[in-house]
Amino acid sequence: MAENTHKINAELKEYIRLLRDSCNLYAVILFGSYAQDMAREYSDIDIAVFSEDFGKDPFSEMKGLLKLRRKINPDIEPLPFSKQVFFEHGKAEFVSEILTKGKLIYKEGQIYIVRRRQNRLSQRGYNLNATWYKSKKQLFQFFRISPQFIWLAFKCYFVEF
């Protein structure tokens, strides 16, 4: 199993390298059976791919992601997201799984800056990791802030040190 995990990790690193070369990538989150260490022989590798380039033409975006995976491993199952698309699907079960059980496997450098902002908010009494609210409206009402800040909080949710 450890040998298979090493192989999967190497394939994911290569896939992420290809993604970085092809789009404005800012996060990749592993979810599903591999994220929960419950993968079996025929399990697919579910990943959520976040880029500002996504959200315009879902069919061609998915087609591009699937084309890249053919070079590495056909078991990789990417889902393209922009922050707007992610929030539009906020009530879907797979979004909840990504948020609660996903493992961040790639993040761009600016997330470290975001982490500092999250720490400042935590000092003021806000716990951004405690609850994921069911709707955007609840989030905006709770924080009394803009959607851009909510996306910032979402990005902080996955930062692990």
Automatic annotation (TrEMBL):
Domain of life: Bacteria
UniProt xrefs under InterPro entries: NT_sf, Polbeta, Type_VII_TA_antitoxin
Transmembrane feature ranges: none
Pfam families referenced in this protein's UniProt entry, alphabetically: Polbeta
Residue ranges occupied by any Polymerase beta nucleotidyltransferase domain in the UniProt entry: 16-108
SUPFAM superfamilies assigned: Nucleotidyltransferase
This protein's name: Polymerase beta nucleotidyltransferase domain-containing protein
Organism: uncultured Desulfobacterium sp
